[in-house]
Amino acid sequence: MRLEKVPILRLAKLEINPEDHIKFAQASEQYMSASVKQEESTLFLLTGHEDEAGYNNYAISCFQDRARYKKHNESNSTKKFKDIAMQLLTNHVEVELQPEFISTKPDKLMVGNQNDYVVYFTEIGVQLGKGDEFANGVLREMKTAVEKEEGIIAMIAGTILNQPNEWLSIEVYQNDVAYQQHLKTKHFKRYLEATKYCVESKGLHLLKPDCIADQSEIFYRP
Known about the structure:
There is one protein chain. The chain has helices spanning about 20-40, 65-75, 75-90, 130-150, 175-185, 185-195; strands at about 10-15, 40-50, 55-65, 90-105, 110, 120-125, 150-160, 165-175, 200-215, 220. Helix 1 packs antiparallel against helix 3. It has six helices and ten strands. The two termini are about 15 Å apart. By secondary structure, it is an alpha+beta fold. It has an eight-stranded antiparallel beta barrel with strand order 1-3-2-9-6-8-7-4, surrounded by five helices.
């Protein structure tokens, strides 16, 4: 599905008491499965935890447009999930991103709690005046990686609204072997070389995904 209009891309940081993490993961899986099956416009959903206990969590969601995002929020499965989540979350912060790149594989994905997938969430601060140079380097690398590497499942990048130098990326790998192989590719090394004078700061978060669901072969680039 090649997206012609700008989709809705959202990121949430969630804090959950470790004893409630399994309940949250199970509720997430039920919600995501229902959403992707019933709504073609719900394009990508992911939840994952950063620490072993499951206290620090992230959620990424993507929808085809504003109207369909509103309809999604009115669905019974979304309302049910939000009711459960509000009982379990101790804190949450959610932001909307400006989508810069989205690409997934041809097959639909529905991955539950027991999986070997690896997710890297990266926060990148780009130097002033280097935005276009960085964008050219990172977006070319992401497109090549999804096309050429079997073990890469999805690549997503966005910037914080009204802060175009603050980039966030989500990379989904089939397993850690796929990630290690990615680091050795020519296109990844070329990206590092092309952007080495653009990056001011970088924060890398390794996430263990609890659930991933998407529609098949999504592609967006402004």
